[in-house]
Design brief:
The complex is a heterodimer of chains A (308) and B (296). Chain A has one domain: Ribosomal Protein S5, domain 2, CATH 3.30.230.70. Helices cover 31% and strands 22% of the residues of chain A. In chain A, a hairpin with a 2-residue loop joins strand 2 and strand 3. In chain A, helix 2 runs parallel beside helix 4 and helix 5 packs antiparallel against helix 6. Chain A is globular and about 55 Å long. Chain B is an alpha+beta fold and 296 residues long. In chain B, strands 1, 2, 3, 4, 5 and 6 form a six-stranded mixed β-sheet that branches. In chain B, a hairpin with a 2-residue loop joins strand 2 and strand 3. In chain B, helix 2 packs parallel to helix 3. Chain B is elongated and about 70 Å long. Chain B starts with 7 loop residues before the first helix and ends with a helix. Classes of the chains: A alpha+beta (308), B alpha+beta (296). Chains A and B meet through strand 3 and strand 5 of A and strand 3 and strand 6 of B. Chain A: One of its GO terms (biological process) is U4 snRNA 3'-end processing.
Chain lengths: 308, 296
């Protein structure tokens, strides 16, 4: 089994970095990165006043803009925006705030492909490779949580999975090796790749460390290039199942990391005492609420700010 | 979605304070917000902020065939579309006045003022030249996005390194950054932009008065100051006291003895400080990277 260029195990994620940017004119903003590449920044504003022609009488209008790092948005950006719209239409409770607009703007901060692709990679990674798409979904979820004003069914976490060329089995009895969270250097040599996005929501009970929160696959773009493989013992659906399970474990790790940083976000946010209290009520993301804990934290913040 | 215009108490409070030379954020009238410059891991990626206003710039380069009328020069494209991230009042597709002002100013400062030596971008005359693409992303608009964008743009161009290219006859070899150290762009000078905003001096409606009323001038207006100002003056100069661009599009009429001291005294001094700051930040960042480049 070939080792990965950066020495990670097959199921190891790169170090995740989450920063709440606190952009001045947005209600919520977050920057997410896998390792030092695949960094994206998302800002969320809402519920705000919509344009008259896009106002919907019983639902919140969802508007998503995706901007690449270099040059102006192209068709790929519009496609990614459509994908995000389908994911977040299911995540945001759209019927709670009719006649309003939720505006999500995604900014890619790094190029997802390392120059000099050999050309044997599966599909056309283009401007938005699997790492970037996963990062976009994660930063959008974090920005929505950071805004706090938009009711959510849960948090969407995404990771990419790939099958490196070297792992194509020669003997018909072996199965291929899959790797979690391929880095830009690895992407050029993948013969199958895809992003899996999971909706994670502890609506009923809060899991303690080690327990698994309930997950639901909400979107995937797995594509597999099987040219050259003549005999494989497992079917393609079985491989897809393995990829999905590997991604699910990775998404849960991402979710735990998000949970850690969210508690820090609440303490850092310098909000007026009344706003901190009302945020606890509006926020339907019950996964982030420790039973009774959030209200207590809000009160503590309130006291600190009063002293100042 | 346009934000509501400032209320009358906000307006009156701002004007009264400015008449007493007080600014709402505690700055002096001609004091700029402290700029910060952050560099990314890739060369040519820069994020600048002036207070809460944040702009990011990224440069990339590719080789293209030059147009037949200019075979010896490289190409520079500047993309500066403002997204709704900067503020919900910017809608994609609909270019607001501020966006147009930013685009035109960036074009004048970075392209028309010949800051970048285009002939040095030529690889093989008539066949291959470098096409530089500077993309400006406005992340947060808290007043004076133009200065921040210009700063980010010029710092990104100074920070960027293009791969070394070897030309033998008609053969062009591009050396990747891992083989040979990439080269900086050849910049003639470093233009930096400053924005002044004008406010009425007397409490009567100065905008309708035809006589040249004295105005209060502030440097680097904040968001509220930008919305309520009577007019702007954008000046771009370099540290060598050379004027690149003066833009005053509309707004309250000013006499030359109001404008000239601003440029000759205030702008020159500020640009010198800013230039020194930019150089020191670039040097710091390059020191940090040197250890990765020198090892061969």
């Amino acid at each position: 089994m070939a080792s990965r260029p950066d020495g990670r195990g097959t199921e190891e994620l790169r170090a995740l970095s989450i920063i709440y940017e606190r952009l001045d004119r947005a209600d919520g903003s977050a920057r997410f990165a896998f390792g030092t590449s695949n960094s994206t920044l998302t800002s969320v504003s809402g519920p705000i006043e919509p344009r008259p022609q896009s106002e919907h009488p019983s639902l919140t209008t969802l508007e998503i803009h995706v901007r690449p790092l270099h040059s102006l948005p192209s068709t790929q950006s519009r496609h990614l925006a459509a994908v995000l719209k389908s994911i977040f239409s299911q995540t945001i409770l759209l019927n709670q705030n009719p006649r309003t607009l939720v505006q999500i703007v995604v900014q890619a901060l790094s190029v997802s492909e390392v120059a000099g692709r050999s050309g044997t990679g599966a599909g056309t990674a283009g401007v938005y490779g699997p790492g970037t798409i996963a990062s976009v979904v994660n930063s959008a979820s974090l920005a929505l949580v950071n805004a706090g004003s938009i009711p959510l069914r849960g948090v969407v976490c995404a990771v990419a999975v790939g099958r490196p060329t070297t792992s194509v089995p020669s003997a018909p009895t072996t199965i291929s090796t899959l790797v979690l969270d391929p880095s830009p250097e690895e992407i050029s040599s993948l013969t199958a790749q895809g992003v899996f996005a999971f909706l994670i929501s502890s609506a009923l009970s809060v899991p303690s460390a080690g327990q698994e929160p309930p997950t639901e696959l909400i979107w995937s773009n797995w594509s597999s290039n099987n040219l050259g493989i003549t005999k494989v013992s497992e079917g393609e659906m079985a491989e897809l199942g393995r990829a999905r399970e590997m991604a699910r474990q990775g998404a849960i790790k991402v979710w735990w990391k998000m949970r850690e940083t969210v508690s820090g976000m609440e303490a850092e946010t310098k909000r007026l005492p009344e706003m901190a209290g009302s945020r606890a009520i509006d926020n339907d993301v019950t996964g982030k609420r420790r039973a009774g804990g959030e209200e207590d934290e809000g009160d503590e913040n309130e006291n600190d700010e009063m002293k100042i | 979605m346009r934000p509501p215009s400032p209320s009358i108490p906000e307006r009156e409070f701002l004007f009264t304070s400015l008449k007493q030379s007080l600014r709402l954020d505690g700055r002096q009238l001609l004091e700029m917000r402290r700029p910060t410059i952050t560099f990314g891991t890739e060369l040519g990626w820069v994020e600048c902020s002036l207070g809460k206003t944040r702009v990011m710039a990224a440069v990339d380069a590719k080789m293209v065939k030059p147009p037949p009328e200019r075979p010896y020069e490289g190409l520079i494209t500047i993309h500066s579309e403002v997204s709704p991230m900067a503020s919900p009042e910017y809608e994609p597709g609909r270019t607001s006045d501020e966006e147009v002002a930013i685009t035109r100013m960036l074009d004048k400062i970075l392209r028309r003022s010949d800051a970048v030596d285009k002939e040095s971008l030529c690889i093989l005359a008539g066949q291959r030249v470098w096409h530089l693409r500077l993309t400006i992303h406005c992340l947060a608009d808290s007043g004076n996005m133009l200065d921040c964008a210009c700063l980010a743009g010029i710092v990104a161009l100074k920070h960027f390194r293009r791969p070394e290219v070897e030309v033998v006859g008609n053969e062009v070899t591009v050396h990747p950054p891992t083989e040979r150290a990439p080269l900086p762009l050849s910049l003639h000078h470093t233009p930096l932009c400053l924005t002044f905003a004008f406010f009425p001096e007397s409490s009567s409606r100065a905008a309708t008065s035809t006589s040249s009323t004295k105005t209060t001038t502030v440097l680097d207006p904040s968001l509220l100051e930008s919305t309520l100002s009577l007019g702007f003056l954008h000046v771009a100069l370099n540290a060598q006291r050379e004027l690149c661009v003066v833009q005053k599009a509309g707004g309250v009429p000013l006499t030359e003895d109001e404008i000239l001291p601003l440029i000759k005294e205030v702008a020159v001094a500020k640009v010198r400080e800013l230039d020194a700051f930019v150089e020191s930040r670039l040097k710091e960042d390059w020191e940090g990277r040197k250890m990765f480049v020198e090892v061969r």
